[in-house]
Design goal:
By secondary structure, the protein is mostly beta strands. It has one domain: Porin, CATH 2.40.160.10. Helix content is 8%, strand content 53%. The two termini are 38 Å apart.
């Protein structure tokens, strides 16, 4: 009973403190047609109407209150919508945090976006979506020999974390995201699950046409379970006006344990965004993943697309993604894959999470 009263009090405080609440969101509907060629000589594919090919379909509440002296209280509650079979609905996958913001920067507690997400979303012309972080093979099959994504490991956000973001110093800023994890004591309760401690540190620069960032993500090992993971990600971009060029890469490693295999890969890539008109933009992305594990299944992904802005809040795009895997050895492994996407996306006037 005591815990219930505490939870209700916290909820009431959250609803009362916000002077300004902004309602934002995105709806993304995508038609995809994909094909795969397997190592045993067979092929397959599917056509489906889905979502999130360009942005994350979500509904978000953002609140702020001026506390005086340049200090603000902030919160963000984001409901992501995903489809599972014929069932669609909100999940807890989006951002969820409360915090303080001032001249010192900001502190967010809960599940804020990670520094590595910023780098991964900035490395590609397509952000973290199709043709960017997520590839045809990862999205359509269980093929993961060269890593869980084109960028080593997909890192979005971690529950139970605290994120500090510094103010900008002549274009430079840094972030520290830390989640302490949990240590289970099965002699007391078998219902308490052990979880890894996670640290994500990032340094960023943005000034005029130049932007860059580097992050270091570390996930600790837990007894009898997940192994230690390390991921270094980086990118740099320059906007020439007629085109924007982005270069980026990563180094990823997961140690082998009794319950987890070894992952060791490095990747590099380039993206080019060309504004063909005020409304029409050509986007291209190329990435190469070098698998350094025993499997040695390297992967190359190339993507090209057009995005047309129907208005400030609504756009449509068409995209083609092609992937090739080297040294595929088992019959079930995919050697080549491709996908064509056609979608329309609508945003609210303000949307701070478009990179997801």
């Amino acid at each position: 009973m005591k815990k219930t009263l505490i939870a209700v009090a916290a909820l009431a405080a959250t609803g009362a403190f916000a002077q300004n609440v902004t309602v934002i969101g995105t709806v993304d509907a995508t038609y995809r047609n994909s094909t795969q060629d397997y190592n045993n000589g067979t092929s397959g594919g599917q056509s489906a109407l889905g979502q999130n090919g360009s942005g994350t379909t979500n509904f978000t509440l953002i609140g702020t209150e001026d506390l005086g002296g340049g200090l603000k209280a902030i919160f963000n509650t984001e409901f992501d919508f995903v489809a599972s079979g014929q069932v669609e609905g909100p999940t807890g996958g989006g951002q969820l945090f409360v915090g303080l913001e001032g001249a010192f920067g900001s502190v967010k507690l809960g599940k804020p976006n990670s520094p590595t997400l910023t780098v991964q979303g900035s490395r590609s012309a397509f952000g973290t979506k199709d043709g960017g972080r997520i590839g045809v093979m990862d999205a359509r099959s269980s093929y993961t020999s060269s890593g869980s994504s084109n960028m080593g490991q997909s890192v979005t956000r971690t529950s139970g974390s605290i994120l500090y973001t510094s103010p900008s110093f002549s274009g430079f800023s840094f972030q520290l995201d830390y989640a302490p994890g949990a240590k289970a004591d099965t002699t007391i309760s078998a219902n308490i699950a052990e979880s890894s401690a996670i640290t994500d540190i990032g340094a960023f620069y943005a000034n005029g046409p130049i932007a860059a960032g580097v992050t270091r993500y570390t996930e600790s090992a837990i007894s009898g379970g997940a192994s230690e993971k390390t991921l270094t990600s980086y990118y740099g971009s320059y906007n020439f006006g007629v085109a924007k060029l982005t270069l980026g890469g990563h180094q990823y490693k997961q140690e082998v344990t009794a319950t987890a295999g070894t992952a060791d890969n490095a990747g590099y890539g380039a993206a080019v965004d060309v504004p063909l008109s005020p409304a029409l933009t050509l986007n291209t992305h190329f990435v190469k993943v070098d698998d350094k594990s025993t499997a040695d299944v390297d992967r190359t992904t190339a993507a090209i697309g057009l995005n047309y802005a129907l208005s400030k809040r609504t756009s449509t795009y068409v995209r083609y993604v092609s992937e090739k895997a080297d040294n595929a050895t088992t019959a079930a492994q995919i050697k080549t894959g491709s996908e064509e996407s056609l979608a329309i996306q609508g945003d609210s006037p303000v949307h701070e999470n478009a990179v997801q």
